[in-house]
Amino acid sequence: METDLEADLKELRQVFNSGKTKESSWRISQLHGLLHLLEDRENDISMALKQDLGKHHVEAYRDEIGTVVKSVNYALKNLKQWMAGKKASLPLAAFPSKAELLHEPLGVVLIISSWNFPIGLSLEPMIGAIAAGNAIVLKPSELAPSCSSFLAETIRDYLDNSAVKVIEGGSAIGERLLEHKFDKIFFTGSTRVGRSVMSAAAQHLTPVTLELGGKCPAVVDFFSTSRDADMATKRIVWGKFGACAGQACIGIDYVLIEKKYASNLVELLKKYITQCYGDGPTGSHSMSKIINKKHFSRLKSLIDEPRVKSSIVHGGLLDEESLFIWPTILVDPPLDAAIMMEEIFGPLLPVITLERIEDSIEFIRARPKPLALYAFTKDEHFQKGLISETSSGSIMFNDVILQYAVDTLPFGGVGESGFGRYHGKYSFENFSHEKVVVMRSFLIDFWFRYPPWDDKKLQLIKSGLRFDYLGVVLIALGLKSKA
Amino acid sequence: MASEDVKNSPATVVFDTEAANSLLKELRSTVIAGKTKSYEWRASQLKSLLKMVEDRDKEICDALFSDLSKPEMEAFIHEIAMIKASCKLALKKLKDWMKPEKVKTTLGTFPSSAEIVPEPLGVVLIISAWNYPFLLSVDPVIGAIAAGNAVVLKPSEIAPAMSSLLAKLFGEYLDNSAIKVVEGAVPETSALLEQKWDKIFYTGNGRVGRVIMAAAAKHLTPVVLELGGKSPVLVDSDIDLTVTAKRIVSGKWGCNNGQACVAPDYIITTKNYAPVLIDSIRHQLVKFYGEDALNSLDLSRVVSSNHFARLTKLLDDDRVSGKIIHGGQTDMSSLKIAPTIVLDAPEDSLIMNEEIFGPLLPIITVDKIEDGINFINSRPNPLAAYLFTNKKQLKEEFVSNVSAGGVLINDISLHLMVDTLPFGGVGDSGMGAYHGKFSFDAFSHKKAVLHRSFFGDAPARYPPYTPGKLRLLKALLDGSILGIIRALFGWS
User: Fold this and answer.
1) Which residues of B are catalytic, by number?
2) What is residue B225's predicted lDDT score, i.e. its pLDDT?
3) Which residue from A84, B275, B300, B481 could staple onto B257, CB 3.0 to 4.6 Å apart?
4) CB atoms B244 and A442 under 8 Å
5) What domains sit in chain A, N to C, each tagged with a CATH number?
6) Spatial separation of the C-alpha atoms in residues A197 and B217, rounded to whole Å
7) Residue B458 to residue A158: CA distance in whole angstroms
8) Is omega for the bond preceding A334 within 30 degrees of 0, making it cis?
9) Testing the interface with A: which of B69, B199, B465 to mutate, by most A Cβ within 10 A?
10) Assembly ipTM
11) pTM for the whole thing?
12) Dihedral through CA B208, CA B209, CA B212, CA B214, nearest 10?
């Protein structure tokens, strides 16, 4: 096992150095390989996701297959444009010269993905890494073992194994990988592991992207029509329970609402939860299960706290054997309880009430910056206030999660929710170095560039740097003495 | 003189963890109050900075002379003029840079509108270097202010006159509740690094760069590291020899006497052409600096006795000292080393493995000019790579095969004076970039904002899931109108 890893990394380095992955034909063929993988093996992917997370086939398609297909197609469509250099303008004083910005691959990159969207969060960054011309190591999460071995097997079959490798394993393998030098590390996961990934990267001066999480709030304003209230509630239910049972970095963590509207919202939430997920303690086949016993216990202990337990108004039912937790609503659990201090990452929805909805801004600002902020409001003034007074990876009005699917928007965090971004062209840029290329000619050399220095040269340079070309001419001709 | 003042002054307060803590606290409350966000505040600070440079340029030049014996021309061109230009650009473009950028959305998320909104990161730490102590301190500060942040600047203690001048001038001209200078060395820097910053911008060497990134990792703080490396110059025989020699000489010795991150570190040329090239370089050296270059006033001195010792050590190696073909004179009392050329030093010598950062120029000869490209690629990525040639194919090969922060053909260093170009490294030469708008971007968070309406919701989104809903989803993600219509009507 030991030497296998080193041999793999050596091969990747050699293949990259040979220039193979830089060719646009290679990149295109690999992207097509990904497409075929997704199309041919759609059912196998669904099965693996069902096994690891109890994900329903439709959710699997929507969140992990369909979105990736969309992203691959977007990359194929735009690759040529992304690979073309960008001309940069130069001031006349630099004439005659040409300058451009070229994107070049970074080299051998490491992608570490998480267990909640184990296929999507492995392949989505990979699209960027391939499009940018790199050799790749993917380390999928060992907590989703069926998906991990699926990826190891199919990537070997559908992609160029000499340049794209899957290395499976847990934290031991992760640590060993991190001892080696990569040209970039792309990490999706928890803040705790993010810190150790970045520390390890620091020893090699390896740039990193950290896609972390946080407590994503959903601010709910007053609804003037019941239709709006219904629409918003459905979206909230979907944004909490419909994305891997709340185990999603951009899923809703908690809701903020004015006291007087809280009970209405709770009634609507109960109604739609029942409509979407049925009634009763048996597992709904439309909602994912909790990934493993450890997380199940973690979530259980969040609601076991007496002060928290007493705030439960719906659900609170757990089945350890099937690792299933029923959609649970809490109203005003204590703000210093763990459930309001840590990222929940599960199907427990606290509803926090405020005197006025505007107080939500203060509430959010007092806490670490989340990956996403959601607000259901038509009040433009309030919207503007939220945009300018709070900070988050992204902010979305009147819906949830969809920003993930918009190729033209950068996806990434800020503060404790991470740094770096991807999706669309941002994925390409994430795995590229933007190299400056300037070409000068030997013609026309300003003699006053060179020492020995005297005052006349100083005045000429002063004019030149101000782009005062007439001044340059006059001083040179001796018709002007000072710039 | 500044250093004497420090020696005679009463014991100053030690800047420790507690001091760093309360400093951060104060700056955070300034940021929370929203003071640094407004266009007015940012513009006013930039205007003050510009005024500061215009009013006090003589003091700035004096400090540069004190710290580095920097000739006035260099001080002016490389530090003062560049800062003025940077301020003016930021003032001119600030409104543009602050504007949200509208983006298109796709059919799958219809109806919606989206934009990207730049926002400040918060409180940022800028640690600068000693070689361009004014430029490398103030330029990043300009970007940080333009982006609406509160700033702590830690200037290099190896350039003490500039460090205390910056503390004084920032105190006089800028808003002290949001912009601060902390002077000091390792203990003070360590105290600062224990704090949680929203961004750290560091200019310096790789060894310290690692320490800074590791400290940043504890708080998940993103960093920009502007490091260095051995910037090679590949010189072909098909060139304009005089212009090439002039540009190499001024690029190497005319920029702080080789103490610059993008200074030509070493030259590679063919065995055949080397004598011709060396002759021309030596000729220009004499033209620029006279016969007694060691004492020329047009050259900066070596910054400190530590660096003087480091540089003389590079020449101490017998296998290297025997290869000196020009210069080699040193004067410890004035910290001066003459422009020195070394021909074909051994590949494993220190001078060929460490960043030189001084007035020593090794020349390596190869059989064919293309071998030079392999030589460069077998070493860590430099901050800059230079090529002198008229041959189109060689240019193309160099550009596509050599990875560096920036590649410059037929000239030296100019690319960092152009504010439309991002300036930064890759691999060992660093991460991140700045200058012009790239500075603004380096200190901003680009927040994605998506507006959706309540109108138009696909029931396909919601469980319970059915095959029909799946078909619609596929069509939506595919973005094809026909597909969507077909799915809606149950035709596919």
Assistant:
1) 226, 261
2) 98
3) B300
4) yes
5) 2-212+422-434 (3.40.605.10), 217-412 (3.40.309.10)
6) 8
7) 34
8) no
9) B465
10) 0.93
11) 0.93
12) -110
